[in-house]
Amino acid sequence: MPDGMAIDYDGLIPNNVGLNADARLRKALETWHPGYIDWWKGCGPVGFQDAEVYLRTAVGVDPEGWARFGFVKMADYRWGILLAPPIEGRRIGFGAHMGEPAWQEVPGEYRAQLRRLLVIQGDTEPASVEQQRHLGATAPSLYDLRNLFQVNVEEGRHLWAMVYLLQKYFGRDGREEAEDLLRRRSGDRDTPRMLGAFNEATPDWLSFFLFTFFTDRDGKMQLAALAQSGFDPLSRTCRFMLTEEAHHMFVGDSGIQRVIQRTCAAMREAGIEDPTDAERVRALGVIDLPTLQRKINLHFTLTLDLFGNEISTNAANAFNAGLKGRYREDKIEDDHRLLDATYPVLRWRNGVIVREDAPALSALNMRLRDDYVAECEHGVARWNRVIAASGVSFRLSLPHVGFNRRIGEFAAAAIAPDGTILAAEEFQARRDSFLPSAADGDYIQSLMVPARAPGEYAAWLAPPRVGIDNKPGDFAYVKIAE
Ligand SMILES: [Fe+2]
Ligand SMILES: [Fe+2]
């Protein structure tokens, strides 16, 4: 382990950032900590706060040693501040400062821009915990309950990661922003979270799996772009956060696979050939595939809005400044400045979808979104293989990127999931075949009965292939005091 990377577990805040040697910062974080715990208890998971949960805690940042498993009460979780190891001689990899040594301090001219990036990222972390706070009551198994709480405590740690950067590098403004991160609330009319998808409800476990597949994956893309940052502390923070994000996406990806497995198995047992015969499939107490498709349509498009406008000056400025790169910037072979480059962008022109070349710098949101969509496609292909293997003839797909948008080029367009342009009235008339209806929501809700015996699973969900930390199928991941 390089110098300065040892984890300090003795203080209130486990860290590998030398907190003990920085009295001012330690005091700022210790002052913030009680408010965080209040927030966690008041806005975090409802119930189970006294239950022992089999959680992993980061004890090192090297690939092997960053997860230690053990039973812990959530409020006692050691939310730490952990940075990936420094890269010797790291240089800025893109933009106007390309080739200069990476910044260890905030460059004055970009202070406001950088702070804004940290706050927007930071705001999403507690938001998702708030969105998911009621799910414990209806967990389909102890395994799933544990995974929910693992995601929740790690989103809490991600908030710590951004608050660390704000407090360490932004003085008084940073402290104020850190307070505000605890003040906003997902879905609150007066003080909502900053981004739309993080103010939506996550009312059931199907929504949770789709959220972790689609929306945590947006988180991954944003973190990956920030991991390229010329501001080295941000880069190192994000690199470590990405290791945790992988588990969140696994929860979603495998969760949907298990939904599909269970549905297809139930259909086969009952001899149902037609996957669109929702009434018969639902009579089996499982989620019919067309409903899953409508839920995919919703969560995918809500998440696309998080990428912002296809054409964006902010994105161009952040790249030029060396603050936020492209996905895998360091693997791309070009000049990393993009001054003369172009990038194809889908635009809505006089009621038609056209592809136009735009200056590559202005099109960075579109590019990141394209990288995101490509990853989502892989996930859907995996799900389709599960369906095909079960002998059911149905294919899931991602809707057109112009469908159901609130932000960007297609905000005013009425486009069907298959890309057909519709009149507004026709879109409305067919809405319930595109997006989940209230009745779909009610049906899904009706399935949300908790399963709490070790090894027990709700009827709409197949058990996982392997346990967490290789535990056996009947392992009690959460010890519920009755
Ligand atoms: Fe996160
Ligand atoms: Fe996440």
Kindly state the number of beta strands: 5
Supply Rg.
23 Å
Number of helices: 12
Order of helices and strands: HEEHHHHHHHHEEHHHE
Strand content: 5-15%
The secondary-structure class comes to mainly alpha
Task: Annotate the secondary structure layout.
Layout: H1 23-43, E1 52-57, E2 68-73, H2 111-131, H3 142-169, H4 171-183, H5 205-226, H6 232-270, H7 278-283, H8 289-304, H9 313-320, E3 342-349, E4 352-359, H10 364-389, H11 424-434, H12 438-447, E5 478-479
Antiparallel strand pairs: 1-2, 1-5, 3-4
Helix pairs in contact: 1-3, 1-4, 2-3, 2-4, 3-4, 3-6, 5-6, 5-8, 5-10, 6-10
Bound molecules: fe (ii) ion (FE2) (2 copies).
The site of one fe (ii) ion has 5 residues, from helix 5 and helix 6.
Report on the structure:
With 482 residues, the protein is mainly α. The chain is built from 12 helices and 5 strands. Strands 2-1-5 form a 3-stranded antiparallel sheet. Strands 3-4 form a two-stranded antiparallel ribbon. A hairpin with a 2-residue loop joins β3 and β4. The protein is globular. The chain starts with 22 loop residues before the first helix and ends with a strand. The mean pLDDT is 95.
